[in-house]
From TrEMBL:
UniProt enzyme class: hydrolase
Documented EC number(s): 3.5.2.6
GO BP annotations, alphabetical order: beta-lactam antibiotic catabolic process; response to antibiotic
Catalysed reactions, semicolon-separated: a beta-lactam + H2O = a substituted beta-amino acid
GO molecular function per UniProt: beta-lactamase activity
Residue ranges annotated for the Beta-lactamase class A catalytic domain, each copy included: 84-363
Sequence similarity: Belongs to the class-A beta-lactamase family.
SUPFAM superfamilies: beta-lactamase/transpeptidase-like
InterPro entries xrefs: Beta-lactam/transpept-like, Beta-lactam_cat, Beta-lactam_class-A
Identification of the protein by name: beta-lactamase
């Protein structure tokens, strides 16, 4: 009893009471089997200097963490046990490139549902234009055949977070398909309503390019006309972030309006990862309707290093192993990720936010867990000025958080040791 009392005193001394109380409540979250992560976070040491700094003032950094233990059962079913800190689905953060993961899955689902002979993820996909602000995509010099396809776009998304690749899939699907499908799967705290790195007017984001899937002779197999969405998908809470922002090169001394920006809650992000790696834990209606081959394709490119691929080809100096991996290995001058450690993830970084969600596997130690984290590293609280602390704060925070959870997993007893040999090699 005294040990528990001492631990609680330590937790309360580390975390501000207002934040701790809010973090301790799981009742309002859309996840079950939820517990408080604060006691585990209180076990940090002096080696976790940046993690300790962030956790000392978590509201300043707008921290949200969701750690999911995975317990295997004798019948091979799994139980998810969640531990959260600062998790609040009403607290908006800008999800940046993390939205590319569900859109990639939905693009594969769209192809699977159309059942058009000759059309699959490898089929050439030409994107035309019908409005002045739209651009074409009729070639891809990074592909082996120099032609664009859904498969190649997804590779570029998962390996280096390519924005144009995401935009082409967004234009294929449109807002109504994306948002209705995610909602129907139970992912109800997500709104995807714009391209990335293309600051178009809101109305233009609801207009989609004509698209052609063609055979090897460039003859059309499936053609989509220019399309548009009547429904406007907005963040109903009208989130405002920062104390100031840059607009058209000028400083505006007021918060930035994110009503027409994407939304992707931490719990929904975790739900997407769970549907990829444990689809059997969900009803057929809640799963992504993709083939097993497509699922393994996504898993492969979530887990390998950019420089390990020939098409597209990425230089290891510019794109090291951890280029798009923050948790456990993020930060500068980190060594290559060992082959027994698999980090299947999708990161995002923009407007001072850094986000990572990962399913982490160590095939030597037979451990597996999921970890999601959001941090706002924007010291001057001014948005769009490109003065963020991604390398100084966000990446070291993610690395040290991942290391803390990894060490905990090494010590955690398991009734059933997971069978993880399938992750030693990642065939397409």
């Amino acid at each position: 009893m005294q040990l528990i009392r001492n631990l609680l005193i330590t937790v309360m001394s580390i975390f501000p009471s207002s934040y701790y109380v809010k973090a301790a409540g799981c009742a309002e979250l859309s996840i079950g089997n939820c517990h408080d992560l604060a006691p585990l976070l209180a076990t940090t040491t002096g080696q976790h200097d940046v993690l300790n700094k962030v956790l000392a003032t978590p509201e300043l950094f707008k921290v949200q963490i969701l750690y999911t233990q995975i317990d295997r059962k004798p019948d091979n079913k799994v139980e998810f046990i969640h531990y959260q800190f600062g998790l609040d689905e009403s607290r908006y953060y800008y999800p940046a490139s993390t939205v590319k993961l569900p859109v990639s899955l939905l693009a594969l689902q769209w192809l699977n549902q159309h059942q058009q002979p000759g059309v699959n993820r490898k089929t050439t996909m030409f994107t035309d234009s019908s409005r002045p602000v739209q651009t074409e995509a009729l070639a891809d010099e990074t592909a082996e055949n120099k032609l664009p396809s859904v498969a190649h776009y997804i590779k570029k998304i998962l390996l280096v977070s390519d924005n144009d690749a995401y935009n082409r899939l967004y234009e294929l699907l449109g807002q109504e398909y994306i948002n209705s499908q995610l909602h129907d799967k139970g992912l109800t705290n997500t709104v995807i309503n714009h391209r990335l790195s293309l600051p178009l007017p809101e109305l233009e984001q609801r207009h989609y390019n004509p698209i052609r899937f063609v055979d090897e002779q460039s003859k059309p197999i499936l053609s989509l006309p220019a399309r548009s969405s009547e429904t406007r998908f907005v963040n109903q809470a009208s989130p405002m972030l920062g104390k100031a922002h840059i607009a058209n090169g000028e400083l505006v001394d007021q918060p930035m309006d994110f009503s027409d920006k994407n939304r992707f809650s931490v719990a929904d992000y975790a739900g997407v990862l769970q549907r990829i790696f444990f689809p059997q834990s969900f009803s057929s209606a809640q799963q992504f309707d993709i083939s097993e081959q497509d699922r393994l394709f996504v898993i492969k490119y979530m887990g390998i290093a950019p420089a390990s691929v020939h098409y597209p080809a990425y230089d290891s100096e510019e794109y090291p192993d951890n280029y798009a991996k923050f948790l456990l290995v993020g930060g500068q001058d980190q060594p290559a990720i060992p082959s027994h450690l698999r980090i299947f993830n999708k990161t995002g970084w923009a407007y001072g936010h850094a986000i990572d969600g990962a399913y982490i596997v160590d095939t030597n130690k037979n451990i597996e867990f999921m970890l999601m984290a959001v941090i706002y590293a924007n010291e001057n609280d001014t948005l769009n000025d490109d003065n963020y602390q991604l390398n100084e704060i966000a990446k070291p925070f993610m690395r040290q958080l991942g290391q803390l959870i990894y060490q905990h997993e090494l010590q955690r007893p398991r009734k059933v040791v997971p069978e993880l040999t399938q992750f030693k090699e990642l065939p397409e």
